[in-house]
Amino acid sequence: MHRLAIIALLAVMLPAPSHAQRPGRLAMLDDWKHQQGYILAAIDSATPKMLDFRPTKGVRSFAEQIDHIVTVAATITSYGTTGNPIPPELTGDSAVYLHDRAKLRARAAQYLSWILATLAETTDEELTPEQPLAGGSMPRWRWNMTALQHSAWTLGQLVPYLRLNGRTPPMFTPF
Q1: What pLDDT score was predicted for residue 114?
Q2: Residue in 48, 39, 23 with CA at minimum distance from that of residue 145
Q3: Residue 144 CB: number of other CB atoms within 10 A?
Q4: Residue-level pLDDT at 21
Q5: Per residue in 67-106, pLDDT tens?
Q6: 45/25 Cα distance (integer angstroms)
Q7: Which pLDDT belongs to residue 145?
Q8: Engineered SS bond to 50: which of 46, 74, 129, 140, CB 3.0-4.6 Å?
Q9: Of 76, 49, 95, whose CA–CA distance to 149 is shortest?
Q10: Which helix (H) or strand (E) holds 137?
Q11: Rounded to an integer, what distance in angstroms lies between the CA atom of residue 31 and that of residue 41?
């Protein structure tokens, strides 16, 4: 618990990035590669039986959480960050991939690879303009950070899913 208090304190103390402090595209790519590793490791940590597991009634299953992470990340990247449409062939059949760990992993990897590829094609200058989305407007680079934050937030919710099933979550590393 002590570590969590230190992390929370550091998060409050660190200044939020401003336009002058915005991360470059290469840093964003590194962050997404790092996040991709965690998401795929979380899927690998789960048993096939866990895909339908819900720790309490009314919450997403493990597979639905993974699907939510990659779908929202791709949607924000598409509409808020790059303007590139999500290829329709990435959608898949949720009746299948939500119940098959290999297919869930493949779908997640495809979505995350698409995010990486579309960001790789974007220039730093293209990430500067304001982009309206979801009733607000931010620079495109901030939408990317929002997608990454949402991804990390939702991925963190999967830790109890894994622990309640006797599984070890992937260990956090800063690189």
Answers
A1: 97
A2: 23
A3: 28
A4: 66
A5: 999 999 999 999 999 999 999 999 899 999 999 999 999 9
A6: 30
A7: 94
A8: 46
A9: 76
A10: strand 136-139
A11: 15
Tokens coding 158: 């999967």
Per-residue pLDDT at 18 exceeds 80: no
**Contact status, residue 131 vs residue 76, Cβ threshold 8 Å:** no
Q: Taking Cα atoms as reference points, which of 162, 157, 168 lies closest to residue 60?
A: 157
Across the range 98-118, mean pLDDT stands at 97
Phi (first) and psi of residue 140, to 5 degrees: -55, -35
3-state secondary structure of 138: strand
Task: Report H helices in the chain.
Answer: 2-13, 25-45, 62-76, 94-97, 101-120, 140-164
pTM of the model: 0.85
Beta bridge partners of 136: 133
Q: In 17-36, which positions are buried (b, 16+ CB within 10 angstroms) versus exposed (e)?
A: eeeeebbebeebbebbeebb
Q: Which two tokens stand for residue 155?
A: 């991925």
What distance in Å separates the CA atoms of residue 62 and residue 123, rounded to the nearest whole number? Answer: 35
What is the CATH topology of the domain spanning 22-48+60-164?
A: Four Helix Bundle (Hemerythrin (Met), subunit A) (1.20.120)
Residue among 9, 21, 129 at smallest CA distance from 80: 129
Tokens 């989305």 sit at which residue? 133
Alpha carbons 122 and 22: distance in angstroms, whole number: 15
